[in-house]
Each structure stands twice: as structure tokens, then as C-alpha cells.
Amino acid sequence: MENSRLLELLRTFSPAELTAFGKFLRSPYHNLREDVVLLFDYFFEKKESKPQSGGQANVFAKQTVFKAIFPKDIFDEKRLAYTLSFLHQLAQNFLVINELEAENDPAFQLRLAKSLRKRGLERHYETTLKKAEITLESQPHRHLDYHYLSHLLHLERYESGARERRTASRHFQELADAGDLFFIANKLRQSCTALMHKAVSEANLRLELLDEVLAQVERQNLTQTPAVGVWYFGYRALSEVEPRAWFVQLREAMRMYVGRFPKAEMREVSTLAVNCCIRQINTRREAGEQAFWLGQVFEIYKEGLDNQVFIENGELSRFTYNNIANAGLGLKAFDWVEDFLTKYKDLLEPRHRETAYLFNLASLHFRKPDYERALELLTQAEFDDVLHNLDARRMLLRIYFDLDEVSALDSLLDSFTIFLRRRRDVGYLRQHYLNLIRFTKKLLQTPAQNQAAREKLRSEITDCKALAEREWLLLKF
Predict the structure, then answer these.
(1) What is the domain extent for residue 80?
(2) Other C-beta atoms within 10 Å of 320: how many?
(3) Which of 173, 303, 337, 419 is the most buried (most CB within 10 A)?
(4) Is 326 helix (H, G, I), strand (E, B) or coil?
């Protein structure tokens, strides 16, 4: 039972959800089986228990669980399976009902209006639908869900009017307009997502009707609609060869419409804007361009922190934490980064908190450079995240080389090679780092006075397509 779907599901419930689910199970409307309640209570009591070793009984072994629920009966695996199945189904029902109750007021009122219309309660229906319309228009957001709900409300009005053969044509035009806006905004959003996927994979995603959508936006000047504008400018910034003017309009729209989107969607828009910048940083070599795009990444992250866009369920993703620190370090904003690392550390997921903090603090001192403090931090922590592990070894490689710690460097190069060959989760980065190791060894073995050999090596480094720390290596000539 330890690896059952039921336990996997229940372990995702928050303490508040578990308490609410216990009340849900005790309601005769939802459940009449006492064995299901007993099974849940057993889980609630033992939920923190870990699998046992050394011959001790696992609290979630089938026989142990059966004995707790049916203490006077002989073990019956089929009977236990039925109880598990009932509890699993009720847990899924609970999640659905929770989602329905969490819906915003317009969505809830719309569902209620549909039910009242089916019962022929015209007065109740009109009052409820009007309330849904007023609530939708009075809330500040003008995001995709707003346009979707607007479309559904107009559809409800149209279906009601068509049934009574009154005002159907007027409602149809409103229905068509609302549907068009939702479709256009959603198509642009999907197209932005497709471009971001294409940038990191070989996927060839089709974008049907996109040309017609782009033309419609321009023809009707729909960029004034927040949900259309941000995704339209975002798509242009991602797809155009010269994206800077489009990106500037995207940033203006983001600042203008920040209160028009819920945090989740604004986080998605911010991620899109960051991806635009990263693409340019990776392809533009002009110093001015690099500085502009890196500065924009930093500004997007700072604005997102100020607006709490990147805080989700009270937590900051460790990946976002890393990216923000990297952006600040790229601009040598060392004091700001150090303050940020400390200020937001406690918002990281507990199991990754200390290693993420230590890794980024090490990166900070490495960039300053304060190699002594960086070495201390890098050697005192074990980085379970593969990217942290790779970056930590990369920093150690540079530190040992620059400090002329040849023995430590030789040992690191050997262990780094073994690590890369054994790991299957580093993807394309394996070759980048293997080439870094190869060229570092060659650099150590090529005498400074052998100019011909050094020039040949420099040319090889310049021409190598998959290579980490290319700029640093070239500085060694």
C-alpha cells in the first residue's frame, strides 16, 4: 500500500485540506461507509511515518492496515481493496468540489444561472445572471479567463433569448465578439508558448491560423485589449529578427496592465519577457546589446519581486531564485544580490533552501572575485541538484586554475570527467563541459613559449561549437 495511488494523492493534501476532507467523509451526503472513515483516520494518524527497516512492520503494509480497520476479522485483501478504492474515489470527488467552491464569483453565478434556467425559474435566473455580469465587469482583471467567462455569459444570454425567440440577434453579435477576443488572445498565448518550446527542443509545432490572427489584431487595433496586447507584443518580440522595438512595447504593456492580470498569468508574461531577453543574450555579441538585454532581465525580476509575481503559495521557486541571482551578478550588483539571497532565503522550499542559498552565495563570492570565501562555501555543501553540481565544479575548475593549484585541479578534472560520463541527466551540457575539461588540460600541457601550438589551441577553442567558459579560456592566451 506504501506506493498506492491513494497514499500518493493524500500526501499532496495540505493540513487544512486533510481536516476538510475528514469532515467531508463524515457527511452522510457524501459517504455512509464507516470503514472508509476509519481508513482515512488511520492515514491521518500515521501520515508522517516512514517506511521501516530492520524487520520492523511497515505501518502501511496491507495486513497492518486491515487489522487497524477490521480488528476482529481475518485478513481479506479484496475487502481492503474495496475500502481503498472507495476512499480514493471520495478523495477525487473532494478535489473536484473544492475546485468548484474555489471558482470566482462570476463562474459560480453562471453555473447557478444555468441550473435555474433549466428549472424554468425565470426571475431567479435573470437576477443570478445579472449578478454574474456585474461581478465579472467590476473585478479588475482583463486576462484570458475574463474573456472566456464573458464569452460563456453571452452564450448563456443567447441560448436563453433563442429559446424564447427574443433578442437573439443582439446577443449573438455580443457572443461572437467575445468569442473572437478570447480566441485571438488564447491563440497568441499558445503561439508564444510554442516558440519558447521550439527554442529548447526540436519540436516542430504547427501554428494554424496565426497569420490571420496577427492580421486581425493589426486591422482592429486590438493591442489596446490587455490580454491581446501583451501576448501580441510578446509573440513579435520572440519571432522577429530585430525584436527590440517590439520588446519595448511588451514592457510598456506589462507596466500598464500589471493590475489587469492575476499573479499567475503575470508570472507567465514575465517569464515570456525573460525568455525574449535570454534569446538575445545568447545570440548577440555586441557589448551594448548584451548590456541592454541583461539589464532588462534584471528589471523584470525586480519588478516581479516588488509585485510578488514570482511568489506562489508563499514560496519562491529555487530556479527563479537562481535566475534572479544570476541576473544581478551579471551586472555586478553584488550588494543587491547578497541582500536578495538573505531576504528571500526563507521563501524557498525547505528541502532545497540551504543548498540553493549556499550555491548562490558561492557564486556571488566567485564573481567578486573572493576565491577564498567561494572555495569555503563550495566545499562545505553537497549539491543534489545536477545543475548546481555542474556549476560548482565549473567554478572550482576556474579557481584552481587561476590560483595555480595544479594538484587540486588535476584531481578535479578527473573526477569531473567521471561524473559527466556516469550521469544521464545532463543532456547537451555533457559535451560542453567535457570540452571545457579537454581544453583546460591542453592549456596546461602547452608551454607558453610555444606560440604556434598556443595559437592553434586558441583557434580550436574559438571554433568549438559546444564549449562552456569559452571567454574565460580565451583570456588565458
Answers:
(1) 5-102
(2) 23
(3) 337
(4) helix
